[in-house]
């Protein structure tokens, strides 16, 4: 898992699964503590994701909300969206709407 910080955005790439959840969790919480603005987690380059990873994102979303911040997911492909719906975590996390192509 590679994590790149670009302003208020965390760009994730690689496998986001049980092996990388602690690393991503720490990066998100460090980012939330270091910024007063909303935080975006970009999943565009994530190749695989599991339920443990989605739960980390859901808990981070709630933690951000408690501290008056906002966490949004960007670049969620069909597989990620499907898992969010199946797990009903879509009710907890905010997913950026895909931009309409011209």
Automatic annotation (TrEMBL):
Highest rank taxon of the organism: Bacteria
STAS domain residues: 1-102
Database matches in InterPro entries: MlaB-like_STAS, MlaB_ABC_Transporter, STAS_dom, STAS_dom_sf
Pfam families: STAS_2
Database matches in PROSITE patterns: STAS (PS50801)
UniProt protein name: Anti-anti-sigma factor
Species of origin: Nocardioides soli
């Amino acid at each position: 898992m590679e994590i790149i910080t670009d302003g208020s955005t965390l760009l994730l790439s690689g496998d986001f699964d049980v092996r990388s959840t602690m690393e991503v969790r720490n990066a998100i919480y460090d980012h939330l503590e270091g910024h007063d603005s909303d935080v975006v987690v970009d999943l565009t380059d994530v190749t695989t994701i599991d339920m443990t990873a989605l739960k980390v994102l859901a808990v981070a979303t709630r933690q951000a909300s408690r501290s008056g911040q906002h966490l949004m997911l960007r670049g969620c492909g069909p597989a990620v969206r499907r898992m969010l719906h199946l797990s009903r975590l879509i009710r907890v996390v905010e997913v950026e709407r895909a931009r309409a192509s011209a």
